[in-house]
Amino acid sequence: xxxxxxxxxxxxxxxxxxxxxxxxxxxxxxxxxxxxxxxxxxxxxxxxxxxxxxxxxxxxxxxxxxxxxxxxxxxxxxxxxxxxxxxxxxxxxxxxxxxxxxxxxxxxxxxxxxxxxxxxxxxxxxxxxxxxxxxxxxxxxxxxxxxxxxxxxxxxxxxxxxxxxxxxxxxxxxxxxxxxxxxxxxxxxxxxxxxxxxxxxxxxxxxxxxxxxxxxxxxxxxxxxxxxxxxxxxxxxxxxxxxxxxxxxxxxxxxxxxxxxxxxxxxxxxxxxxxxxxxxxxxxxxxxxxxxxxxxxxxxxxxxxxxxxxxxxxxxxxxxxxxxxxxxxxxxxxxxxxxxxxxxxxxxxxx
Amino acid sequence: xxxxxxxxxxxxxxxxxxxxxxxxxxxxxxxxxxxxxxxxxxxxxxxxxxxxxxxxxxxxxxxxxxxxxxxxxxxxxxxxxxxxxxxxxxxxxxxxxxxxxxxxxxxxxxxxxxxxxxxxxxxxxxxxxxxxxxxxxxxxxxxxxxxxxxxxxxxxxxxxxxxxxxxxxxxxxxxxxxxxxxxxxxxxxxxxxxxxxxxxxxxxxxxxxxxxxxxxxxxxxxxxxxxxxxxxxxxxxxxx
Lengths: 351, 240
Hints:
heterodimer; A: 351 residues; alpha+beta; 2 domains; four-stranded antiparallel beta sheet; 13 helices; 5 strands; elongated; disordered N terminus; B: 240 residues; alpha/beta; Rossmann fold; seven-stranded mixed beta sheet; three-stranded antiparallel beta sheet; 10 helices; 10 strands; 19% strand; globular
């Protein structure tokens, strides 16, 4: 072919001479991915359908929400709401608190009558075994999964409780708030109460000491009757003066302890004033009128389903790209086949 | 002759294109079958570039093949023949896929007498050439009985390609595919040049390498079906 040598390859608009490997690789990946759109859509659709089915099969969920204003200051750089949220989360991780909430509200009775509610994903439900009375640990897990905390602002916090019935949601929310207030108060006054008990013990001991001192003075005066009728003699008697001084000092100590006890009792009373509680309830929990569509568990299930579907799509796409050894563009002909590409055309009917 | 549509389209060579293919005015004809162009314009444009790269002046016999059926081999061979005819070369489109002939039906011309009749001496060259459009004739597969390898051997023995070249024609042959049996290789080895049509995203590189191994001529490649399935937004996002 005599004409072949006369052509300038640089004028030929194929990519082979100037193809950038990274761009070609990216283009290739995109071609494979968009060439299998249907295949890659299937796992995502399956995940969405599976998640929707799971959500539909879930028992109904009602949500009761309370809004609280946090009176205390935040720790460090944290806002007050953040600090309070952390504190509540810590309480929700303890069995004692969860059991107290369940016992103080309708949750305990509900879980006793519906023990399977605490084991929806457990081995017992899979094996079809009937579970027993829920343990404290199961109650804690159930409560933590059904309580959602959301910060509205630096000092405002919403506490949402999801439950299978409207009354249970409201009752559990009320119980949660009351137990939370009690726990916060108990934590706040614990030191003062301990101190009060110490003072009271010391006061009892001091009272005995003072009684003993007064008895000693009285005995001394009975043994020396001349001192009782002669004030000048009693004023100069060294032994009597010593006994009286000791009684006076112990009386002062007694009075000081009495004052400290009164102060501690005053502090305790002050700490229990509603205005000095760690938080104030702005909106009390109400009985929900309708079911909650997206509770905490539903959102988690939805996110997990979508994430799973997305991961499946990525895995299948990676597999397709890895297994694909076909030629997609003229630029790949030289590198993949060792042949020369002279052109490319759009899709034509086969033949 | 097929119905001929007068085209108002002139050569759309951009400044970056080589000019040799457009040195002479393109013949103002586009063959039509049932009011439809027999080859889409976009494919013709791709083949113009390919022929430009190949060098139209040096072509004597050009076989168009592929690894498998369905890769666009017949369409590309027809498009290349049209491009050569546009260029002013007297071109013969030879249907050598005698087991599965398509060109006669596609161009709505009689299927025989054709290549096999010529090879077996039942017809003369002028009898088997069917005019398609100015500068382009088709030689259909003809009346075929028996084995394909034997028929192709007969074509080789009859030296038909030399006869056609001697008559001043350039041959573009629609060959059988290379994989599956030996007839693809047998037909390709009769050609001075071979173009391999590779449909994008269909045959693996290993399959193509297996197909071209053993060919007497190293084929040049035309990638068919390169229309990107990637939407513009994805290209923009990926920075390509």
